[in-house]
Amino acid sequence: MSLKNKSIVIGVTGSIACYKTLDLVGKLKKLGANVYAIMTKSATNLVDIKDFEKASGNEVQTDLFLPNIDYKDYIKKNKEIKHISLADIADLFLVCPATANIIGKIANGIADDLLSTSIMATNSPVLICPAMNVKMWKNLIMQENVAKLKKLRYEFVYPEYGDLACGYKGVGRLAQLDKIIDRINTIIERRNDLAGKKILVTAGATSEEIDPVRIITNKSSGKMGVYIAEEAFLRGADITLIRGANSVEPQYYFKDIKIYSVNDLFNKIKNNIKNVDIVIHAAAVSDFTIKNKHNNKIKSNENLHLELTPTTKIFENIKKIKKGIFLIGFKAEYNVSKKILIDRAYELLKSAEADFVVANDVGKAGRGFDVETNEVFIVGKDKKITHIDLADKRTIGNKILDKIKMAFL
Ligand SMILES: Cc1cc2nc3c(=O)[nH]c(=O)nc-3n(C[C@H](O)[C@H](O)[C@H](O)COP(=O)(O)O)c2cc1C
Fold first, then answer.
1. pLDDT, position 80
2. How many angstroms is it from 338 CA to the middle of ligand 1?
3. How far apart are CA 231 and CA 223, in angstroms?
């Protein structure tokens, strides 16, 4: 991991978490980055400017208007005024910690100090790491501001649950520094390496109706697929996500289509596949649907017999719909040997004429459904295996994307 010669501008705002940003600056410097801090007035009340100068090795900027400059003279002589030069040199503009106030200002186009003006003036990616009291974070105005900024492609590392400096317990703690550094790396190193590629990702569980209020579904949270879609999006791909209606929400603003049944999913894939280069089919598709689906709510006072019939095998049909597409699927098994896991993934690969099948054993702790981590084996056409050891699903997602990039691009 190297950030050699990358310029990271850090906006430090008036949250108690700004002490942690000092550690972050040190870690980024160790990774080779040039770090420049802009502190708001509130931040300077919490941490000494000198501490950030020491940590970053650069002068800290705090003011838009400098005391020793005669601006009238500058204007008269038509001299260049470098009041927001950091906005131009940033490979990444980080706001860490980000107060409710700065998020509100960015979302509403307010530029009334050096930091907010520089953010408005930058063309660099902006990564916002909020830290605040749980009630402030949950405040609907705050959440609307975040949603608005996400749509405008500002990026976030969300705060985490835990004890807060204000004495409350809840979501609001600045995210772990390593998580922030991972995201910084992803943004800088991988930015635009999938630009121009059109990727369709399916994610989450399908659900088959028993009657208008009851469904049969599975435990998939959609995290693996949604995270792959998000990471590919951050790398510049043009994303269409088709996901089970109850899956996790994506953080970014791309084409996001919700589905319920297997048929619904299949139809949405058919309708959206035309211009797509790559399909990553991570949805957990129901193998059965209900034959005798009831149109009214079934009474609950007697035994109920359901007849299940097999559903369409979507994955095996994708290359039939679009021949030349690059196709990746997932194979989940429960508590099997590595050999069986890989053999079954390879059988699936052959029957779908896929390019890769990503196999995982959801019977093992920390792998598969509804957890943040996974361990996978990527099986290729030649049965060559790439093992990705237990890691968080975003890391796994990026490694799968790296593999696709090597094979396809
Ligand atoms: C000790 C202290 C800690 C604070 N911590 C936070 C915080 O974690 N998050 C937040 O949004 N505001 C926090 N505030 C309030 C902000 O400092 C305040 O809203 C200020 O106007 C933010 O200005 P800035 O965004 O320009 O830095 C804190 C205030 C004090 C006095």
1. 67
2. 52
3. 12
Is this prediction's pTM over 0.90? no
Q: Tell me: the pLDDT tens digits for 142-175?
A: 999 998 998 776 889 999 998 888 788 888 999 9
What's the 35 CA to ligand 1 centre distance in angstroms?
23
Domain range annotation of the chain: 7-190, 198-408
User: What is the dihedral angle through the alpha carbons of 297, 300, 301, 304, rounded to the nearest 10 degrees?
Assistant: 90
Which is the CATH superfamily of the domain at 198-408? CoaB-like (3.40.50.10300)
Amino acid symbol at 146: V
What integer pLDDT is reported at residue 1 of this predicted model? 60
Superfamily grouping for domain 7-190: Flavin prenyltransferase-like (3.40.50.1950)
CB 373 within 8 A of CB 361: no
pLDDT tens digits, 262-281 = 999 999 999 999 999 999 99
The model's pLDDT over 65-79, given as tens digits with 9 standing for 90+, comes to 887 778 888 777 776
**Looking at ligand 1, which atom is closest to the CA of residue 99?**
11
Q: Residues lining ligand 1, judged by CB closer than 6 Å?
A: 13-17, 40, 42-43, 99-102, 131-132, 136
Distances (CA, A) of 390 to 179, 229, 361: 16, 20, 11
Sequence-ordered list of residues with C-beta below 8 angstroms from that of 5, at least 6 positions apart, any chain:
32, 33, 34
